[in-house]
Amino acid sequence: MRRSSHTAERRYRPFTAINFSNPWLIHTIEPNAAAVIGTFGTKAEAVVDMIRGRFNPVGRLPITIPASQEAVNNEAGDVPGYDEDPSYPYQDKAGNRYQYNFGLSYE
Q1: 27-61 pLDDT per residue, tens
Q2: Can you name the residues that pair with 18 across neighbouring β-strands?
């Protein structure tokens, strides 16, 4: 019996790695992921080492992730997320706000 990828996605939530060369809209991606890993030109081998627990992630966001396209359209300046309205950063169900200097680790 062959399972569809849709069934597998419901059963096993994926880790999602995003290369943040620019701020992304992640409000449709993050809720379906077991984890969102923000990379900045990181080699795949390093991401796999981090997922397997061989390396404790220590990075912080150098940008703010916008909550929606509307937030992007209404941003105040040239630097995304800088000195914006409090509703600008994306916020997950746990209350984490994906703003400048946000980051989690295993510890």
Answers
A1: 988 888 888 888 888 898 998 898 888 988 778 88
A2: 38
Q: What angle do CA 73, 33, 31 make, to 5 degrees?
A: 50
Residue 38 phi, psi (nearest 5) = -90, 120
For CA atoms 24, 27, 32, 37, the dihedral sign is: positive
- How do strand 15-19 and strand 35-39 relate by DSSP bridges? parallel
pTM for the full predicted model = 0.71
54 within 8 A of 74, measured Cβ to Cβ: no
**Cβ atoms within 10 Å, residue 100:** 17
Residue 40 is encoded by which pair of tokens?
């900045």
